[in-house]
């Protein structure tokens, strides 16, 4: 029989699954409380790292429509529910796991697709969202900058040529004005 505490725990975990863009299942056997606190801090504000009960997590995953964790829920389990940048959180987890071999990354879920431990490592190897956006901005900015430089060079060239061409044109204008009355006089006769 389900107790109200267990029902609310399942609802909370299912809600965390639904609200997250990614989730990473880990085993934390052998980590101290201080190390877990350090890990939570390194994951940032957008990632919730929760120690969970395996049976309740299995039920919550089924309620959320997730089967990526089937067969993986054993031992002391914690899940990183990632709501922000999944690459940065995966990078923090893998870096922490390298420094603390007691943390074992078992499996993950990213945008509805199951990832094994190597898939989480591949996700961590990607560049961060901010870096990718900066790269796209640079790619988009380059042609506009080149166009602006070309237009400015063309403007300078036209000003140089216009200044040199304006002086002879000014000399020719009075001569053309003098020829016009003489031509009119010749047509009147």
From TrEMBL:
Domain of life of the organism encoding this protein: Bacteria
GO cellular component: large ribosomal subunit
GO terms of biological process kind: translation
InterPro entries associated with the record: Ribosomal_uL10, Ribosomal_uL10-like_sf, Ribosomal_uL10_bac, Ribosomal_uL10_bac_type, Ribosomal_uL10_CS_bac
UniProt key word Hydrolase: no
Cited PROSITE patterns: RIBOSOMAL_L10 (PS01109)
Entry keyword set: Ribonucleoprotein, Ribosomal protein, RNA-binding, rRNA-binding
SUPFAM superfamilies xrefs: Ribosomal protein L10-like (SSF160369)
Location of region: Disordered: 165-189
A Pfam family reported for this protein in Swiss-Prot or TrEMBL: Ribosomal_L10
Job of this protein: Forms part of the ribosomal stalk, playing a central role in the interaction of the ribosome with GTP-bound translation factors.
Subunit structure: Part of the ribosomal stalk of the 50S ribosomal subunit. The N-terminus interacts with L11 and the large rRNA to form the base of the stalk. The C-terminus forms an elongated spine to which L12 dimers bind in a sequential fashion forming a multimeric L10(L12)X complex.
Name used for this protein in its record: Large ribosomal subunit protein uL10
